[in-house]
Backbone:
C-alpha cells in the first residue's frame, strides 16, 4: 500500500517543475515541488521497510530473486538521486522556474522509478511474490538441501543422488532439494516418497509449502493442482505439467534418479 505514496509525490514534483517552465509567473511552484519531493523520499523510506522484509523472505533459488534484487537496487538509486536533487533545490526555492540540473535529475529519477515499478509488477503478477502467503498448509521447509551429481553427465546417463534425511519424512511432510540448479520437492504420501519440481508452472509458487489431497499437491498461491505421481495438471489455472523425479533406495540410502538429456542446461 505504501508504494503508491512515493510514486504519487515524486510524479507530482516533476509535474510542478514542468508547470514552472510554462508559467514562471505563478508563485510557489518550486516550493511545492520541493516539499512534494521531500514527502516522496520520506514515503519511499517508509515503504522500504516492508519491502526489505518481503525481499529477505524470497528464497535464493526462487526465479524472482534476481528481479527482486534489481528492483531493490533501482529503488535505492532513486532515493539517492532525489536526495541529491533535494539538496540542490534547497537554495533555490524562490526561483520562478526550475533550472536545468535539478530538472535533469528529476527526469532520470522518474525514468528509474518507472523501470523499478515495472519490475515490481513483474514480481507480483509474473513471479507471485507476496501473493497468498496465508494459504500455506504444510510445515515450510526451513532450508534447501544443496546437492550435486558430482560429475558432468552425458546425454541419457542416469545418476543416483542420495538425499540426506529423506527417509525421515513423515506423511505429508516435504523436503526441498536443489541438485545442480534443479529445485525439487520430495514428499511422503502413504509411506511412499515422490519427487517433483518445486515451482508451480503457473506463477512459480513454492509447492513444498502447498497442501496435499491424496496424490494431488495444491499450490499455495493460486490453487493449481498437480498429480505428484505423473506431474499432470488436475486443476488450473496452471496449464503445463510438472516435471517429476523417481525416488529409489540403494544400499540403504534414499536418493533421486536424474536423467541427463540434451534439453537440460545442467
Residues:
Amino acid at each position: 500500500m505504501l508504494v503508491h505514496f512515493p510514486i504519487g509525490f515524486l510524479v507530482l514534483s516533476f509535474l510542478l517543475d514542468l508547470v514552472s517552465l510554462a508559467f514562471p509567473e505563478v508563485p510557489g511552484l518550486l516550493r511545492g515541488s520541493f516539499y512534494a519531493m521531500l514527502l516522496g523520499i520520506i514515503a519511499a523510506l517508509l515503504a522500504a521497510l516492508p519491502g526489505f522484509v518481503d525481499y529477505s523472505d524470497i528464497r535464493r533459488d526462487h526465479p524472482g530473486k534476481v528481479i527482486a534484487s534489481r528492483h531493490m537496487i533501482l529503488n535505492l538509486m532513486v532515493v539517492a538521486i532525489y536526495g541529491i536533487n533535494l539538496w540542490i533545490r534547497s537554495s533555490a526555492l524562490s526561483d520562478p522556474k526550475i533550472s536545468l540540473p535539478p530538472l535533469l535529475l528529476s527526469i532520470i529519477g522518474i525514468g528509474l522509478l518507472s523501470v523499478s515499478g515495472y519490475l515490481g509488477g513483474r514480481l507480483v503478477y509474473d513471479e507471485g511474490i507476496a501473493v497468498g502467503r496465508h494459504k500455506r498448509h504444510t510445515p515450510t521447509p526451513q532450508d534447501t538441501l544443496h546437492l550435486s551429481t558430482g560429475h558432468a553427465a552425458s546425454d541419457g546417463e542416469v545418476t543416483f543422488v542420495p538425499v540426506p534425511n529423506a527417509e525421515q519424512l513423515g506423511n505429508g511432510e516435504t523436503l526441498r532439494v536443489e541438485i545442480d540448479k534443479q529445485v525439487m520437492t520430495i514428499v511422503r504420501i502413504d509411506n511412499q516418497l515422490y519427487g517433483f519440481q518445486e515451482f508451480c508452472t503457473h506463477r512459480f509458487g513454492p509447492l513444498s509449502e502447498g497442501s496435499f489431497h491424496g496424490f494431488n499437491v495444491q499450490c499455495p498461491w493460486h490453487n493449481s493442482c498437480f498429480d505428484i505421481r505423473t506431474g499432470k495438471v488436475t486443476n488450473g489455472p496452471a496449464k503445463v505439467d510438472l516435471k517429476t523425479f523417481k525416488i529409489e533406495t540403494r544400499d540403504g540410502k534414499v536418493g533421486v534418479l536424474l536423467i541427463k538429456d540434451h534439453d537440460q542446461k545442467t
Notes: Helices lie at 4-22, 29-56, 65-89, 100-125. The longest strand covers residues 182-189. The radius of gyration is 25 Å.
